[in-house]
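Weekend entry, working from home. Most of the wet-lab plans are on hold until the incubator is repaired, so I used the time to fold the two sequences that have been sitting in the queue since the last round of cloning. Logging both here for the record. First:
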Amino acid sequence: MTFATLDEISAGRLVIGMGPGVRSKYIRMGIKAEKRLSTLRDTVHVLRRLLKHESVTIRGATFQMQSVRLDLTPVRENVPIYLAAVGPKMLQLAGEIADGVLLTAASSPAYVRKALENIRIGAEKSGKDPSSVDVACYVICSLSDSSQEALEAARAAVASNIAPAEYGRLILEETGLDPAVFDRITRVDTNETGVKISPQVVSDDVVDALSASGTTARFRERLDEYVSSGVALPILYPVGSCFDNLIGYLRQSA
C-alpha cells in the first residue's frame, strides 16, 4: 500500500528498491537472516501481483498469504523494482527477476564488469535481454583542488563500505586488490566511534580504486570509467565537505 501510494503522489515516478540487507547488522539486532534469495524472489513476485490489483494466495518458502488484495487501485501495474546485490547468486537473481540492479558503494569499475557477467546469466535464464536490466551503482566521491585531501576525505567511507564480512573481501578480490585490506579494517571500529582510518589501514590506491575521488579532472575520469564498465545510473555519494564543489562542477559540465 505504501509503494502504491508513493507512486500515486509522485505521478508515477516511483522506483522500488529492496535487498537482502547486511547480515552482520541483522545478527547484532537479533534478527535472523535466513533464506535471503527465496525471500526476495517471493517478495518481488507478491509485489508485482499486488500492484496489478490481483488477489494473492501463496504458500511459498517464506510467505503464507490467503486472498490478499490492496484496498486501493495502483496507478501503475508495472512499477520498476531494483534489487540491491553484491554476490554472484544475488546478482543472478536480480538479473532474472528485477528491472534493475543497485550495486553497493565502494564497488569499482572492475567489480562492475564482473557483476555484469552474473546479471547476464540471470537475465538469460528468464529469457530477458541482459541490456534491459538497468545497472545503478553508488559511487563514493570526493572533490578537492588537492588530490591528497580528496582521498583523505573518502578514506573512512571506503573503509566502512567494505567492512561487512559478507562482501568486503569479495569486492577487494574482484577489483584486484589485496584482500588483506579487509582484515586490517576489521581490527578498527569504522562505524560507532569515528576512528580515523589511516593510510596504513586503507591506502590511497585502495581509495582511488573504490571511489571517484581527487581533483575535478580525476573525478571526471573515474566517473567515465564507471559508465564505461556498464553503470547506466551512477548515484553519486559525496563525502567530506565537497558537496558544494560537486554541485558546482556538475552545473558547469551539464
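Second, folded right after the first finished:
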Amino acid sequence: MNAATWSLPLLSGAFLLCAVTIAVFGVRMTRAARDLAHRTGLGELLVGAVLVGAATSLAGITTSVTAAWTGHAGLAVSNAFGGIAAQTAFLAIADIVYRRANLEHAAASVENLVVCAFLLCLLGIHVGGAATPSVSFLGIHPVTPILVVAYFFGLYVLVKTHRSPMWIPRRTDDTRPESIGYRSGLQSSAARLWLIFTTSAVAVAGSGWLLAQVAVPFSVQTGLSESFVGGTFTAIATSLPELIIAITAVRMGALNLAVGDIIGGNAFDTLFVAISDMVYRAGPIYGAISNAEVLWLAITILMTAVLLMGLLYRQRHGIGNIGVESVLLAVIYLGGAGAMFFLA
C-alpha cells in the first residue's frame, strides 16, 4: 500500500473511515478495559497505562520506526515527542467533557502522581541523549538501553504503588474513586472480556496505523518541515485513539482509566525514540535531530510538569469546571506548535 499515490478524496475518505473505526472499537475496548481492571484487581489507571496505552500507541510507534528506518530522523523523533505533547493537551478536552468538576481533582490517586513523575524521569533521560548526540556504542546511543530498563522498572514501581500505597489523596464530594458508579458485568467471563479487548485493540491499532500512512502524504504536500509535520499532523493523527478512548472513559465515569490512558501512553511513547534509534542506520538518532526536536522535548517536559502540579494542587473548580492547568496545557501546546511553525 502506497498512500502517497492516493488522491485527496481517497485520503480524506480513508481518514474518516479510520476515525469512525477507532470511535466504535475504542468504546468497546474502553468498556472491556474497565471491566478487566476491576476483575483482575489491577485498577483502572494501571490497565489504562499499560494495556490501553500500549495498544493505542501502536500506530505512533509504527510511524516513528518507519521514518527512522527510511532515514527521516527528525520525523521519527518529532512524532514521538509531539505525540506526547498532543496527548497531554487532550486531557484539557477530556476535562471539558467531564462537567462535574475539574478532572485532575476528581481523578485523584497516588498512581497518577507516580506515573507523571515516572514520565518526567523518562523525558529527562532523553535530555541526556540530546545533550550527548555523538556518543554511541555499536551505532546505538547508550541512553537507549537505559530508557528501556527505566521503563520496565517504572512499571514495577507503579504496580507496587497500586498494591501498597503509602499516600492517600483527600476525598471530597467531587472525588470519584474507581469503585463509584461501577457495575461489574457478571454476565461476561474474563475470557470474553480479554477477547473483546484484544480484537478491539487490533482494530484500533490497525486503523491508527492506516491513519499514520494517510497523514504523512496528506500533510507533506503542504511543504512544511519534518519537525512541524511530525510534531503536529502525524502526532495528532496517530494520537486520535487516545483522545477518543479518554473521552469515552470520562463519559463512562472511569476517570482513572482516562488519565492512565493518556499519561501511561505518554510513558510508552518515550520508547518510540529508543526503538527508532535501534533501526536508524546512520548512527545514534540523537546525532541526527535538530533543535526543533529538542524544543518538542522541552514542551513535553513543561506540559507534564504543569499536569503534575495540577494533580497535586487539585483545584476543584477553575474556569467553570475546567482546571487552570487544563487551560495552561492547551495554551502551551498551541504556543509550542505555533513556535514550531515559524522556527522549524
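Plan for Monday: verify the second prediction. DSSP finds 14 helices and no strands in the chain.
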